[in-house]
Every structure is written in structure tokens, then in C-alpha cells.
Write a structure and sequence with these properties.
Length: 195
């Protein structure tokens, strides 16, 4: 993979304030992926394709990534970026709202990365668990959301997102069939496996 091209994609996203995965979060996930070598990877929230491009390096030799994005401008840019680094055969973009697309997918995934609308995390979790292989792993980014999730934060504007992220944490940590670690990297990362 062309690292120079990848850095350009990253710099442009940061300049344009497009939220992309933070370096320390990426490092933690890459550590897991390098051991697991997933074959089927699902990403909920493509943005400009940066994280998906980064993850391809750690897939099984025949591995692919399915990624979902609803913002048309970002889909266009993601497609251009994926083409620039020559990964069209590795990354498949589903265009549309994850809430509508996820229930139509019937594939089994080795790894799932959730990085989309925070208010929808409990729904994404339910769908992810349905499609996760028994040995699979789910990564949920921004789970602590600027520290609001663990504080008494209750400002109206972010209330739904905070409530739903708390629900995600509760579901994944209190469900006896799941094992979850919450790491304070980036904006918080939850790592969940089936027991």
C-alpha cells in the first residue's frame, strides 16, 4: 500500500475536519487485527475510507472489507481514495443508511468496526452480534464521547447520543455472553467478544 497516498488522505480529512480514526485507536485495533487476520470485516461508517484502507493491511490474504456510508460526498471521496491506493478489490462500499442496510446483510464477520451515528449504537450492536462469528470481535469507536458518557453530562443537544452510548456499554458489559474492555484511547474504544 502506498503510505504517501494514505498520509495525503489523512491530512486532507484532518484539514477538512472530517472525523477519522485517531492514531492511538488505530494502533490498538491494528494490534488485534494483526493477530486475528480477519477474512470478513464489516465497518459501519466509511467517511472518506481512511480507516478501511488502514485495516486492509491486517486482513487475511483473501480478506475483504464491507463498509457502509450514507453521505454522498463522502462516498464519492472514499471511492476516489480507495482507487488511489489500489484497493477496489478489497473494499466494498454499501451506499445508504446503516439502519436500513444492516438488517439486509446475512454474512458472518470475523471483525466489526462501529464508527457511525452515536445515537444508533445499540441498534448497530444488535445487528453486529447477529452477524458476528463466534470467535469474532467488535470494536466501537468514540464510546466515551469526549468524556460525557462517564460524567453527569446532560446537556440537551447530546443527550440522546450519550444515553445510547451508555446503553451500548451496559449491554456489552452486563451481558453474560459477552466480554468487553473499554479503553481510554482516542475518544474511547469498546472491544467486545463472545465468551
Amino acid at each position: 500500500m502506498n503510505k504517501e497516498e494514505l498520509n495525503k488522505i489523512k491530512e486532507k480529512a484532518l484539514e477538512e475536519h472530517i472525523p477519522i480514526i485517531m492514531d492511538d485507536t488505530l494502533e490498538v485495533i491494528e494490534e488485534y487485527l494483526s493477530k486475528e487476520k480477519p477474512k470478513n470485516f464489516l465497518e459501519i461508517g466509511t467517511a472518506v475510507g481512511y480507516s478501511a484502507i488502514c485495516f486492509t493491511e491486517f486482513l487475511d490474504k483473501y480478506g475483504t472489507i464491507d463498509t457502509i456510508e450514507r453521505d454522498l460526498d463522502r462516498i464519492k471521496e472514499a471511492k476516489e481514495n480507495i482507487k488511489k491506493v489500489g484497493l477496489e478489490d478489497k473494499i466494498n462500499i454499501y451506499e445508504g443508511d446503516a439502519v436500513e442496510i444492516l438488517p439486509t446483510l446475512n454474512k458472518k464477520y470475523d471483525a466489526i468496526f462501529i464508527d457511525a451515528a452515536k445515537g444508533k449504537y445499540p441498534f448497530f450492536l444488535k445487528e453486529s452480534l447477529r452477524m458476528l462469528k463466534d470467535t469474532g470481535i467488535i470494536f466501537a469507536d468514540n464510546i466515551l464521547y469526549k468524556g460525557y458518557v462517564l460524567s453527569d453530562y446532560n446537556k440537551h443537544k447530546q443527550r440522546t447520543a450519550v444515553r445510547n452510548l451508555r446503553e451500548y456499554i451496559k449491554e456489552t458489559t452486563e451481558n453474560p455472553e459477552l466480554e468487553t474492555k473499554i479503553l481510554e484511547v482516542g475518544d474511547g474504544l469498546a472491544i467486545t467478544r463472545k465468551k
